[in-house]
Write a structure and sequence with these properties.
Two copies of one chain form a homodimer.
Chain A (H helix, E strand, L loop, with lengths): L1 E2 L2 E5 L4 H13 L4 E5 L3 H8 L6 H4 L2 E3 L2 H4 L5 E5 L13 H8 L6 E5 L8 H4 L4 E3 L12 H12 L4 E2 L9 H16 L9 H13 L5 H16 L4
Parallel strand pairs in A: 2-3, 2-6, 3-4, 5-6, 5-7
Antiparallel strand pairs in A: 1-8
């Protein structure tokens, strides 16, 4: 039985929050921490703290969010409830239910203390999650938000045998790159709209929870299409 | 509808934890914070922080735990799971279920970061609560433990009308004082065992969830017994 949950901190700004997140993970049996683009002095202060846990000392430091979640099959982005107004988001308890007995390697992604996740970060997420705080309250502290999610997910992220082979975020990113190449050979991509289009397409692929086999098929088709197109 | 939960921090040592506890309370709609015997420099640093919430600025500072919970009808003490080995403790989710629709004014009591609650502190508690962390992990950070409890109890501590009139901790403490006076007139109290006996008797009164009426009757009986005894 393995604890299958990766916690990803994107651009954390406070060494105490990095340490507190790692500590809460350890409290609830999680060990897989990735940190995206931390500011070097912040990172160094966090890992050199006398009480740094082994979770923190073993954390992976990644340049991009895409790299941090490349092998994950379900990427869940977090934000304050207000941030997701009009979008569909789930609670930690609902995520726990969804993960119960599932075959996913899930990642739970937290943004920086000041700005949260950017829209580009969110385009890498299959799903959005909010902790149900009261209206008009301040946003949650990062270390406390991580603690609540780890507490809620503690029993629902272990599995024995693999079942459905979901596509990983990295495999979908590779399919997206092929699709963008194909579209780049048409006038569908206009000067200036490439980044926006890439985000939209990524969201639309992630929304559908594709299997590894479906993504393989898609990539094969895209490669053949590309090779038949004029540059 | 009022949020009926008091958070009590006993001898907190870190201003950041006091601030983080108040912030988490605000996130989940709680406002009633009491702090027992904080070290003055720690307290002053916490309340003078630029981001101090109104929960913190309105917190009551008490000399003793008995004072902090005097008007509460259910006092729940927290500790790491290992601390309660062999004793019966509940989880935050179980407490949420117990409080659902109840007529209690509950207090949730957290000890200092270093030592937790003392046995004397615990003798003031009707019930014990542990957050279900994994074996052999470090103890939880105070601010994170408060956040998890507030998250779990956010929907279960509001009520409309009073129903059963439970005795408050202060009323039980008054009954205990009368009982100790009566016992003091016998040879049941030996030199040196008074504090231990007081703790045992308190625990035994709190274990039974007495109503206001039962405690009033008990006090009346103890007063009459006392007045008939020779000094």
């Amino acid at each position: 039985m393995r604890s299958r949950l990766r916690i990803v901190l994107v651009r954390p700004r406070d060494p105490n929050n990095i340490g507190a997140s790692a500590r809460a993970m350890k409290n609830f049996g999680f060990a897989d921490l990735a940190v995206v683009a931390p500011w070097p002095p912040v990172w160094n202060e966090a890992v050199s703290a006398v009480n740094a846990s082994d979770v923190l000392l073993n954390a992976r430091r990644c340049a991009t969010l895409a790299e941090a979640v490349a092998d994950c099959t379900l990427v869940v982005g977090t934000a304050d409830p207000g941030r997701f107004a009009g979008k569909s988001s789930i609670t930690p308890a609902e995520l726990a239910t969804d993960l119960k007995g599932s075959d996913h390697l899930p990642a739970l992604v937290f943004g920086s203390e000041k700005h949260g996740l950017t829209n580009d970060d969110l385009s890498h997420c299959h799903q959005l999650l909010s902790i149900p705080t009261v209206d008009g309250c301040p946003s949650m502290n990062l270390g406390q938000a991580v603690a609540i999610c780890c507490y809620e997910l503690r029993n629902e992220t272990r599995r024995n045998e693999p079942g459905i082979e979901w596509a990983t975020a990295g495999e979908i990113e590779a399919a997206l790159a092929l699709a963008m190449d194909v579209l780049g050979k048409t006038d569908f991509i206009l000067p200036g709209n490439e980044a926006e289009l890439r985000g939209k397409l990524r969201r639309s692929l992630l929304n559908r929870q594709l299997t590894k086999r479906e993504v393989n098929t898609m990539c094969g088709a895209l490669r053949r299409i590309g090779s038949k197109m004029q540059d």
